Amino acid sequence: DAGVTQSPTHLIKTRGQQVTLRCSPKSGHDTVSWYQQALGQGPQFIFQYYEEEERQRGNFPDRFSGHQFPNYSSELNVNALLLGDSALYLCASSLNRYLYTFGSGTRLTVV
Amino acid sequence: SQQGEEDPQALSIQEGENATMNCSYKTSINNLQWYRQNSGRGLVHLILIRSNEREKHSGRLRVTLDTSKKSSSLLITASRAADTASYFCATETGGFKTIFGAGTRLFVKA
After folding, report:
1. What is the pLDDT of residues A18-48, one digit of tens each?
2. Under an 8 A CB cutoff, do A48 and B42 touch?
3. Buried b (16+ CB within 10 A) or exposed e, B92-105
């Protein structure tokens, strides 16, 4: 049984570009959350998707947007990339509110 | 901003010793969870303790929760080199947002 799958694993982008990160949730899970983790810090909540709608959002600018598809997979889009967007982006899926399964993350480097 | 603050920031011990990490938080919570992260990869859920529970065990892990002090501790007994990782506490305050602390980096020397 596959857990949470994220792609790509690593990505290098230039400042000002746009990026799309992808997440396939664990089988049977219907909720997807996205986190940004800067080096040496804890994960910061970006937003959560449930039933193809953004259910809650953290303190991130509108440059960060997402989508959830009918098969529960999700995308995170970041526009107008800044150097400060360089981080590990983690996707977590769950069936209930509390028990999250995390993917291995996408390491984004903005140069 | 982060709800949880772990203490210490880093901890280095010998294999076989016990490791204790503490977490303090600011607002009322529904539950508190502990996660482990190896080398900047994905987080692994270790244990969840609800706000009406005081102590919980899972294998070599023991978690306590003191809601009057807004604090929790994670004890790893008889540590192993494989326990080397970062440990995070995470809280749910209502809504659907899980808030993580900055983590404790544990290094277990063989």
Report:
1. 999 999 999 999 999 999 999 989 999 999 9
2. no
3. beeebbbbbbbbbb
Counting Cα atoms < 13 Å in the Cβ hemisphere of A16 gives: 0
Cα–Cα distance, B62 to A73 (Å, whole number): 35
Q: Do B96 and A58 touch (CB under 8 A)?
A: no
What would the two tokens of residue A65 be?
């947007």
pLDDT digits (tens, 9 = 90+) for B13-57: 999 999 999 999 988 888 899 999 998 788 999 999 999 999 999
Three-state SS for B83? helix
DSSP A32-57: EEEEEE-TTS--EEEEEEETTEEEEE
